[in-house]
């Protein structure tokens, strides 16, 4: 059994540890978390999940076989630099950082350390992440399998080629936020139309959950399911016509494309800074 150390105690780390603990993938005392500065946050995670928290990178690396990079992409260069003196050929690194390539990480640290890049999402907290993983050049099948097993404790996993990961980040890494935004808009619209917030919230959540389950459990295509809701000349058609008028498809396409481009940009910014 391996020990897992997290650098970064933010939203994504919390979602991952919550999922792993709930699914009993690993004993709590095999999880080590460190943060750059916020000791209140570490105390909060320790209290909530019974995980072990640490203040310095040397101790974290000493205790961990697998290191999960979970700071903001902009903080990655400093994090890698601080890890470098304490890394050994026994470590495996898993990065969930948007946009940061495995080759950037490989070049920043001593050679031959296996790097896996993963893009989960925050639904990891309840075991519903959609995670995509790719391996860097020093990672082998065994490393991929371990990483897959790890992320399967917090949802589903697909293995992809690394060049797909920026687009996937825009799609499913950021994806939950698009649905939350839609729910926010639907709640506001419901209230505007005289429905109280509590009733609206219940109806919307059940509707979105039902639609997701129809997609996954009936295996029908979204187009077919949409058509079955849409009676000719009925209410749905009236609503969808407005979405078309406001270029809904174009908005969604641009949203996912831009998010993916931003992922690529985040990686490039760091690479440029490192070459300065
Ligand atoms: N939030 C999300 O939905 C997802 C986030 N990600 C990726 O996960 C990473 C973390 O995202 P969040 O948790 O949302 O960010 P966050 O801002 O909530 O947390 C990042 C944490 O890392 C800490 N940190 C910074 N430098 C550090 C260092 N050198 N050593 C240790 N800790 C350090 C910060 O103090 C902060 O608490 C990002 O790179 C993001 O691209 C990936 C998938 C989904
Ligand atoms: O917004 C972000 O940059 C991160 C990456 C995917 C989801 N959240």
Automatic annotation (TrEMBL):
Residues 162-266 form the Pyrroline-5-carboxylate reductase dimerisation domain. Its EC number is 1.5.1.2. It catalyses: L-proline + NADP(+) = (S)-1-pyrroline-5-carboxylate + NADPH + 2 H(+); L-proline + NAD(+) = (S)-1-pyrroline-5-carboxylate + NADH + 2 H(+). GO terms for cellular component: cytoplasm. One of its GO terms (molecular function) is pyrroline-5-carboxylate reductase activity. Pathway: Amino-acid biosynthesis; L-proline biosynthesis; L-proline from L-glutamate 5-semialdehyde: step 1/1. Residues 4-99 form the Pyrroline-5-carboxylate reductase catalytic N-terminal domain. Coiled coil: none annotated. GO terms for biological process: L-proline biosynthetic process. It comes from the Bacteria. It holds the Pfam family P5CR_dimer. Keywords: Amino-acid biosynthesis, Cytoplasm, NADP, Oxidoreductase, Proline biosynthesis. NADP(+) binds at residues 7-12, 70-73. It is found in: Cytoplasm. InterPro entries: 6-PGluconate_DH-like_C_sf (IPR008927), NAD(P)-bd_dom_sf (IPR036291), P5C_Rdtase_cat_N (IPR028939), P5CR-like_CS (IPR053790), P5CR_dimer (IPR029036), Pyrroline-COOH_reductase (IPR000304). Catalyzes the reduction of 1-pyrroline-5-carboxylate (PCA) to L-proline. HAMAP family: P5C_reductase (MF_01925). Belongs to the pyrroline-5-carboxylate reductase family. This is Pyrroline-5-carboxylate reductase.
């Amino acid at each position: 059994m391996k020990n897992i150390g997290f650098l970064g105690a933010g939203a994504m780390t919390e979602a991952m540890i919550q999922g792993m603990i709930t699914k009993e993938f690993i004993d709590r005392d095999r999880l080590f978390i460190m943060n750059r500065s916020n000791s209140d946050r570490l105390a909060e995670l320790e209290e909530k999940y019974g995980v072990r928290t640490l203040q310095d990178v040397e101790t974290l690396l000493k205790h961990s076989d697998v290191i999960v990079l979970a700071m903001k992409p902009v903080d990655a260069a400093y994090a890698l630099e601080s890890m470098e003196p304490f890394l050994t050929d026994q470590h495996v690194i898993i990065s969930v950082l948007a946009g940061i390539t495995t080759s950037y990480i490989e070049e920043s640290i001593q050679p031959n350390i296996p790097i896996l890049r993963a893009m989960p999402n925050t639904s990891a907290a309840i075991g519903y992440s959609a995670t995509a993983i790719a391996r860097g050049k020093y990672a082998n099948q065994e490393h991929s399998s371990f990483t897959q097993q790890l992320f399967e404790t917090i949802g589903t996993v697909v293995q992809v080629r690394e060049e797909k990961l920026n687009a996937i980040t825009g799609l499913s890494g950021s994806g939950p936020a698009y649905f939350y935004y839609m729910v926010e808009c639907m709640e506001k619209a419901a209230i505007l139309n005289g429905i109280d917030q509590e009733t609206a919230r219940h109806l919307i959540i059940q509707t979105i959950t039902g639609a997701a389950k129809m997609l996954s459990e009936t295996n029908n295509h979204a187009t077919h399911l949409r058509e079955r809701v849409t009676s000719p000349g009925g209410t749905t058609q009236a609503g969808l016509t407005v979405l078309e008028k406001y270029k809904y498809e174009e908005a969604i396409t641009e949203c996912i494309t831009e998010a993916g481009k931003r992922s690529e940009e985040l990686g490039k910014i760091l690479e440029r800074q490192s070459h300065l």
